[in-house]
Amino acid sequence: MFFEGAEKKVTLSINNPQISLRQDFDDAFWQQVVAHCQAHIISKIENSQCTAYLLSESSLFVWDQQCVIVTCGETSLIKAIEFLTAKISVHYISQLIFQRKNEYLSHAQPSNFFDDIKTLQQTFNGVALRFGALDSHHNYLYHLQNSNNQSVVQPSIELLAYQISAHASAILCQADLSPNTVRAFLQLEQLIPGFQLDDHVFSPYGYSLNAIKDHHYFTIHITPQENSSYVSVETNINLLVLTPLLLSILEPASFDLIAFNQPEFEALTQHYIPKNYLSKELVQSDLSSGEQVNFANYVRPTSTTTKPLIIDMA
């Protein structure tokens, strides 16, 4: 069974103290937003600063002046963006960053990155970039130009792990898997102590977690099938400090890091990335809008001979 775990993501910031995305737009509104990309809300947690919705395909986080929507599978996030920007009014939007990761089966998607940015350019004036080589791991990014060169996006880091170990895949694919089993396996109490948690185990496979603490958020999405395994972790806390533990648990064959506004990114990666992983690509850019973006791809070399995958002709 195959599921496209690679995500599409939008970070939208507004600049209007008279409007709060978190307080002025109710659950029914956000349900409409995610419905436009063929997803729905499963559950919700909130505190005084952040509301987190767990979706049938990934997550939605809402603060007063910013929201982050992450969707996977065959969703059409661009349609949700169109609906959201029409309701908020483009005049109040100070930044919109749209991302698409490289996909396992891109031809099965309802659109590609270039289709999506054509849609965005009908409303906005933006810049499109590719971080990483086309024939390897890469991340497409579209952002609005901003003449004041002052970042309006909060710092964050994404870790995208590919081909997790057979051991990790077996645990996460076992029958009758419970959220508590996954929490224990991922050592969440050690990773994110004090966070409010909301998670869901999907049938037949898959796991999603949202966690919040004050304005901080932490989310994990797991597609555990051994032949196409993928795990994404995203947060606005210092994820690089936690990376050695995450890598020891998942043991991926390769992983990417995508960081926004992390000025110490290079020094932190040199310190925390285990030496059994080799840096394959490092890309850095200071966007015209003021954000700094870092992309890194790491691989674990192997000398073990494997067998090809037999394809089911049926």
Order of helices and strands: EHHEEEEHEHEEEHHHEEEEHEHEE
* End-to-end Cα distance: 13 Å
How many beta strands in the DSSP annotation? 16
Mean pLDDT: 92
Helix content: 10-25%
Shape: globular
**Total number of helical segments?**
9
Please give the order of strands in the largest beta sheet. 2-3-4-5-1-6-8-7
Secondary structure category:
alpha+beta
Stretches where pLDDT falls below 50 for ≥5 residues?
none
Query: Which value, in Å, is the CA radius of gyration?
Result: 19 Å
**Main sheet record:** 8 strands, antiparallel
Measured by DSSP, the beta-strand proportion falls in: 25-35%
Task: Describe the protein's architecture and organization.
By secondary structure, this protein is of the alpha+beta class. Helices cover 23% and strands 34% of the residues. It is globular and about 60 Å long. It has helices at residues 21-24, 27-35, 77-88, 113-121, 166-172, 179-186, 188-191, 239-250, 265-272; strands at residues 8-14, 41-46, 51-55, 58-62, 66-71, 93-101, 126-131, 139-144, 156-162, 196-201, 207-213, 216-223, 230-235, 254-260, 278-286, 292-299. The model has no long low-confidence stretch (mean pLDDT 92).
List keywords for this structure.
314 residues, globular, 8-stranded antiparallel sheet, alpha+beta
